[in-house]
Specification:
Pfam families: MFS_1. This is MFS transporter. The chain has helices at about 10, 35-55, 55-70, 70-95, 100-120, 125-140, 145-155, 160-215, 245-250, 250-285, 285-310, 315-335, 340-370, 375-400, 405-425; strands spanning about 20, 240. By secondary structure, the protein is mostly helical.
């Protein structure tokens, strides 16, 4: 069987919406579908980016407040700046993923992220705090969820939910393993001593796996989604099924899902960004470090079980259930002070965290297909980043105003319920057009 070489145009030149394929497409191998190796590579990449960025922002916030004496609200605003810049970078990445090889986008962004993390200890002033978070966010946006979900959506169709759940387990593994180690390193040697090690870890966790294992699409390796029979149009080229970007982005379902995730992610990310500090102020840094690991482990359980459950239930109903569950967990965290009960509440929060993050890309892929998926998902991410960025800022302002975390977490529970109400108004999930 002929195999595409690493430097061939079919791989590095990939990026068109319709991809040329030989007249006789190569037969699928009888052994493991290569898409599962893509899932494994993505798990490692997301573990690294999740452990050093998504989950790690809570640790960095606490460290900047403790070491540099920044106000909580100011540090929360910097966290918000990270998410806004990552959302904008995700929009650019979504367009680039349809034009150039995804590995170029990921590797370039990973190198910049590594350099930004290495400079963590140089932050001394407020403007430097914001500059650090903005630069780190811009770099992270090109090697985070947008390229990961876009590539996985291309490789899988029928088994997409399972593939996403397994790959995104890497986020939780990063939070369970890498983030506690980051917190420990910062406690031992401070931000200045830990920064270069964080940067090196980011580089080693993303770049080698990307270069060695990632292919931007199954067609780039002479394969098809799920390893099934190739579908071609009249010109004899592979056509991706899906709704055009401009039609999808104006649909009721897209707007409702995106707005629902503004509220949902404001509640979730705000809670996560302040979780380490919440646990530290109530029960000390040891319980806080354990709490981060418990959150990540619960997220793993929720996400892996979700991949199998989604084979039997509707994605929209499943998402609604977890939105309500998350709101209840946030209220529990608001009123809990006992260390054991706090860890239980954190575990309850981890279950929806593990599911809700993967449900937005899955809902959009099911509704609109893969034709313009990179741009569609990136746009949805940019809208929902209003909540992602606003959540930590709202928490910080409410904390400074109330002097504690009771009010911020109660408000987060209300925001979560608002997200569920908006998703109910989205109507039934549309289905993308069939391949031409």
């Amino acid at each position: 069987m002929r195999r595409a070489q690493l430097g061939s145009p079919r791989i590095w030149g990939y990026g068109l919406r319709v991809t040329e394929t030989p007249m006789h497409a190569p037969a699928q191998r009888a052994n493991t579908f290569f898409g599962w190796y893509i899932v494994g590579a993505m798990m490692l990449i997301l573990a690294t980016t999740g452990g050093l960025a998504f989950y790690n922002l809570s640790v960095l916030l606490d460290a900047f407040v403790a070491e540099r004496r920044f106000p909580v609200a100011a540090a929360s605003g910097a966290t918000a700046a990270f998410f806004i810049s990552s959302g904008l970078a995700g929009m650019v990445a979504g367009r680039l993923l349809d034009r150039i090889d995804a590995r170029i986008v990921i590797v370039t962004s990973a190198v910049l992220s590594s350099l930004a993390l290495s400079a963590t200890g140089l932050v001394e002033n407020l403007w430097q705090l914001y500059a650090f978070h903005i630069i780190f966010g811009l770099a992270y946006g090109g090697c985070g969820l947008v390229p990961a979900m876009t590539i996985l959506a291309r490789w899988f169709d029928r088994k997409r939910a399972l593939a996403l759940s397994i790959a995104m387990t890497g986020l939780s593994l990063g939070g369970a393993v890498i983030t506690p180690l980051t917190a420990w390193a910062i406690r031992q040697v401070g931000l200045a001593g830990a920064g270069p090690w964080l940067g090196a870890t980011f580089f080693l966790g993303v770049v080698p796996a990307t270069l060695l294992l990632l292919y931007p699409s199954p067609e780039a390796k002479g394969l098809t989604p799920d390893g099934e029979v190739q579908a071609t149009n009249r010109s004899g080229v592979v056509a991706r099924a899906g709704t055009p970007y401009h039609e999808a982005s104006r649909s009721r379902f897209f707007i409702a899902v995106s707005l629902a995730y503004v509220f949902t992610m404001a509640a979730q990310v705000g809670a996560l960004a302040h979780l380490f500090r919440l646990a530290t102020t109530r029960n000390g840094p040891e319980i806080a470090a354990i709490g981060v690991a418990v959150l990540a482990l619960a997220s793993i359980i929720g996400r892996l079980s979700g991949g199998w459950i989604l084979l039997k239930v509707r994605s929209r109903s499943y998402t609604l259930a977890w939105m309500v569950f998350q709101a209840a967990a946030l209220v529990a965290l608001a009123i809990t002070h006992d260390p054991v009960l706090m860890l239980v509440a954190i575990a309850l929060l981890g279950l929806p965290v593990g599911n809700l993050l993967m449900m937005q890309p899955l809902l959009l892929a099911e509704a609109f297909g893969t034709r313009d998926y990179g741009r569609i998902y990136a746009t949805g991410q940019l809208i929902s980043v209003l909540g992602v960025a606003g959540g930590p800022l709202i928490f910080g302002l409410l904390y400074d105003a109330s002097g504690g975390y009771l009010i911020p977490y109660l408000v987060a529970g209300m925001l979560g319920c608002g997200g569920a109400a908006i998703l109910i108004a989205s109507g039934p999930t549309p289905r993308p057009p069939v391949r031409e």
